[in-house]
Design brief:
With 174 residues, this protein is mainly beta. It has no helices and 17 strands. It has a 5-stranded mixed sheet, with no helix packed on it. A 4-stranded antiparallel sheet has the order 3-2-5-6, with no helix packed on it. Strands 7-9-12 form a 3-stranded antiparallel sheet, with no helix packed on it. Strand 15 and strand 16 form a beta hairpin.
Amino acid sequence: LTWTTTNATACTAAGSWSGSKSVSGTQGTGALAGNASYTLTCTGAGGSASGTANVAVTPAPLPAVTLSATPGSVTSGNGSTLSWSSTNATSCTSSDGWTGTRGTSGTYSTGALSTSTTYTLACTGAGGTTSASTTVSVSTGGGTIYGLEWDGNETTNTQRVLAFNGAGGSSAPF
C-alpha cells in the first residue's frame, strides 16, 4: 500500500489495518488469505478525508491428479506400470500398494503381483490436496476349457475330449 496526503497532520488506519500512520508512506499487506479493505483517514486544519484500497484475493486452484495403470488387469506373477501427472501441485505422496514421496509426474513399475492391488497418490499444492487411485486386478488365469481332438483317420475314428487349464496352459485327456 502506498499513500500520500496534502495538508494533513495525522492519519489513522482502519479496516484490514489499524493504528496511526504517517501522512505519507508505504506498507506491505503481508500474506492475505482473503479479500481485504484498507481505509486511511487523514486530518488537517481544513478537516478530514478518507480513502480506501480494496484488495481481491483469488484462491489458489486445487491440484488436479491423474493416475492410471497399464495394463489394468494382469495374471498372477505379472506386473503393471503406473503413470501419473498433476497440475498445480508441488509434491505428491503415494500410499496403499506403494508408499513414499513421488514427483508431480512419472511412472512406476509394480513388479510381479499375486493379488489385486490399489494404488493411491495424493498431490499437494497451494490450493490444497487432491487424491487419485487406481487398482490393478490380478487373476490366476482362465478356467478349464474343453475341446475335441480327432486323429483324422476314418478307419480308427479315435476321438478324445481334452481339458485345458487356463492357469498353466496344460492339456490332458478327459
